[in-house]
Write a structure and sequence with these properties.
The complex is a heterodimer of chains A (144) and B (302). Chain A is of the alpha/beta class and 144 residues long. Helix content of chain A is 42%, strand content 22%. Chain B contains 9 helices and 13 strands.
Chain lengths: 144, 302
């Protein structure tokens, strides 16, 4: 089972004021706690976070949300990422020795972070039949 | 009795140590301070937010009963510029201002990407980041030749610099961002981010977790080195300390400069175009932390 999370919507619900940016630790903490509440009881090993509509992400927020959520779920699948988002998330993942799976606009999968944990994440998705190799040899989700 | 603190005629990061020396000497008496800026000819964002930090600290001297005095610049152009930069809006709360101050207007100056803005809480950082993304993208890409994809990194660096106040200063501070042509020092356009507070400073913030590790070397310089070079934080959480490291990486990529002054020391990542020293200790004591980020126009447009 995949837990779907609209990060922009969670941000709107978690902090007062209309903000599109994931900045500051308190904001990151509030967003993560909202996500953790939503995941309670769902027993999802895979969470798919959609960052569409999110403006800037800073390192503090990326650490509070992504790095800490990786202690709650086996696989984090991120979609709707911009280059700017990656710039904030990747150093945080590398700093913790972690990785996430990214879903490209064409549905194929890639990794962000360390290579070794990323390979394990791919294996996890394949073993759960949530992803498979396409005839072209790239990995793609089997179920959206 | 009132003690005088001269504000340098050209007030920027280079003349700040002179200002800090005058401040330290005057503040040692615990008397009311008069900041004399009547002869000011120019002030960088760093000078303006630094002056506010001095006002904040001076207000707390002698039990915080009286606000320090400030004589405003007499040159109408300078006065107008300080007003456009949002200085007097904040200074009015900290100083008893003497001299004619122009009516406060919403800054419209295209070079003032972010007027002097208070930073006290996470919400202020959100406002700053929202504002800067609207104003800065065009300047960064068209005037500084920075890849449009990298403009989010600029907002990120600004956010982390402001968060240092919220997380570590123990008081509020200010941020200002401006773009201008740096004729004498670089002969290029630059974008300058200046952040200042009169809070506890890096040494005090890191002391409980780092002092023992440094032993006799512990001081303001060691604290700055630990924070900027080693990426340590007062929190034991391994994810902490990423902010300054991230700023450093971003600034290095664009051949920029980062400089942090706290207490009696200043640490800098010095690009080839600058002649600053990487670490300077034994400066005049000045409260809190003052951060300067400079991003120059890129030589070969990307």
């Amino acid at each position: 089972m995949i837990q779907h999370i609209d990060v922009h919507a969670v941000l709107q619900q978690s902090v007062p004021g209309y903000y599109a940016d994931l900045v500051t630790r308190p904001t990151g903490r509030a967003v993560r706690q909202s996500i953790e509440r939503a995941m309670l009881g769902a027993e999802a090993a895979v969470a798919r976070m959609d960052f569409s509509g999110v403006g800037c992400i800073d390192y503090s927020c990326a650490d509070e949300i992504i790095a800490k959520l990786l202690g709650e779920v086996k696989v984090l699948l991120l979609r709707g990422l911009t280059d700017g988002h990656r710039e904030a998330i990747e150093p945080v993942l590398l700093g913790h020795g972690l990785a996430v799976v990214i879903e490209r606009p064409d549905g194929t999968l890639g990794a962000l972070g360390l290579q070794e944990p990323a390979e394990r994440l791919f294996d996890e998705l394949v073993s759960r039949r949530l992803a498979a190799r396409t005839p072209g040899g790239v990995l793609a989700l089997t179920a959206a | 009795m009132t003690r005088l603190v001269d504000v340098p005629a050209n007030f920027d990061d280079r003349s700040f140590d002179q200002f800090a020396g005058a401040y330290a000497q005057a503040a040692s008496g615990g008397e009311r301070l008069l900041f004399d800026a009547h002869a000011a000819e120019w002030a960088s964002p760093y000078g303006l937010v630094g002056l506010l930090a001095a006002g904040q600290a001076a207000g707390a001297l002698g039990g915080g009963g009286e606000r320090p005095l400030l004589t405003a610049p007499t040159n109408p152009e300078v006065l107008s510029y300080w007003a456009r930069a949002g200085f007097f809006r904040e200074a009015g709360e900290l100083f008893e201002i003497h001299g004619r101050v122009p009516k406060m207007k919403t800054p419209t100056d295209s070079d003032v990407l972010l007027p002097v803005t208070p930073v006290r809480a996470a919400e202020d950082v959100h406002e700053v980041v929202s504002h800067i993304q609207m104003r800065a993208t065009a300047i960064l890409t068209s005037e500084l030749g920075i890849d449009p994809k990298a403009t989010m990194g600029f907002a990120m660096a600004l956010s982390e610099a402001c968060q240092n106040i919220v997380e570590h200063a123990g008081t509020g501070g200010w941020v200002a961002v401006q773009s201008y042509h740096w004729r004498r020092r670089l002969a290029k356009r630059v974008v300058v981010i200046a952040v200042a507070d009169a809070g506890v400073g890096f040494r005090h913030s890191l002391e409980p977790t780092q002092a023992k590790r440094f032993g006799e070397r512990w001081g303001d310089a060691a604290a700055l080195e630990a924070a900027l070079i080693q990426g340590v934080s007062r929190f034991r959480d391994p994810g902490r300390g990423q902010g300054l490291k991230g700023i450093r990486n971003y600034i290095s990529r664009w051949d920029g400069k980062i400089s942090i002054r706290s207490g009696t020391a200043r640490i800098s990542i010095v690009p080839s175009w600058d002649d600053d020293v990487p670490l300077k200790d034994g400066l005049a004591a000045f409260p809190g932390s003052q951060v300067l980020l400079i991003i120059p126009e890129q030589g070969s447009r990307k």
